[in-house]
Amino acid sequence: MNPHLAALVGTVPPGSAVTLAVARPGGGEVLCHGRTAGDSGEPVTPDTGFELGSVSKTFTALLLAELAARGEVRLRDTVTVSGVPLSLLHLATHTSGLPRVPPGLRRSALPAWFSNPYAAFSAEELDRALERTRLRFPPGSRVQYSNFGVGLLGRVLAERSGGGYPGLLAERVAGPLGLTGTGCEPGAAVGYFRGRALPPWRIPALPGAGAVRSSGRDLLRYLTLHLDPGGAPTPGLAAALRDVQRPRLVKPRSADRLCLVWNLRPLPDGDVLFHSGGTRGFTAFVGFCPRRGTALAALTNSGPRFNSRFIQTGYRVFRGL
């Protein structure tokens, strides 16, 4: 087994599936281990779909940048919450002041907290939540990670484009970039939490925060295009791929920057951009370094655990490329 793949397999429970997509200046490869459903199911392939959790937010950022490149939205455009205007840039940089999740979500999630906490929270409930939301701080004054914020961004972009988030993702990103296995429909792999198989992750009210599924093959292409935006099929997407990488602010008490969703870490051998994610049954890490021409996506159908080392190992493997 490839040593990088073996390092990741060693961090997850026995029987877990792992996909590793690696890009280097000389080319890329996708390595797979395990089956789609524990010891049963089909062998995992480069086209097997995994839930991405918060890595979905990078797709929402790309949608924002693509619509902005076309002049259909502006980063300073606003949506009003509790009488306060929040810019799309606030939503994309976790500086909106919105709480991590909408009010009322935890109550609706209780029956399915360990399997699918967002499933019962509908778009109508999100409307009601927006009416009673109170900001935690003035927009732009602090950084506080918010699923609510990026999920609301995805909703705003979809509404301004006249459709839903899955359709917008397919039309503006997945289709043009040739990401045939990327979307919001369940993938082939079954997610597991503490050895228990889970139903597909659903997040109907906030898909832009965590509903995207993708495969190792698609993520290899996705990250390769971030390394070389000139390979994008349209000028708008090329501009968007560059724009999501532009630092917007410095994180407090850190040298790290925030771009549009992406975290950027300045390092002597080249800035690295990265994001991680998880649903109850899946964990994901993606990262790329434009100067070195390297990128990595690591996926598993094992949900995040308190002592899990999957994301940290993914970052370490990425830095060692």
TrEMBL record:
Keyword NAD included in the entry's annotation: no
Enzyme class, broadest EC rank: hydrolase
EC number(s) reported in the record: 3.5.2.6
Keywords from the UniProt entry: Antibiotic resistance, Hydrolase
Molecular function GO terms recorded: beta-lactamase activity
Top-rank lineage group of the source organism: Bacteria
GO BP terms, alphabetized: antibiotic catabolic process; response to antibiotic
Membrane as UniProt keyword: no
InterPro entries: AmpC-like, Beta-lactam-related, Beta-lactam/transpept-like, Beta-lactam_class-C_AS
Transmembrane intervals: none
Reaction(s) this enzyme catalyzes, per UniProt: a beta-lactam + H2O = a substituted beta-amino acid
Short name of one Pfam family: Beta-lactamase
GO cellular component assignments: outer membrane-bounded periplasmic space
Positions of the Beta-lactamase-related domain: 21-305
Family: Belongs to the class-C beta-lactamase family.
Protein name in the entry: Beta-lactamase
Species of the source: Kitasatospora cheerisanensis KCTC 2395
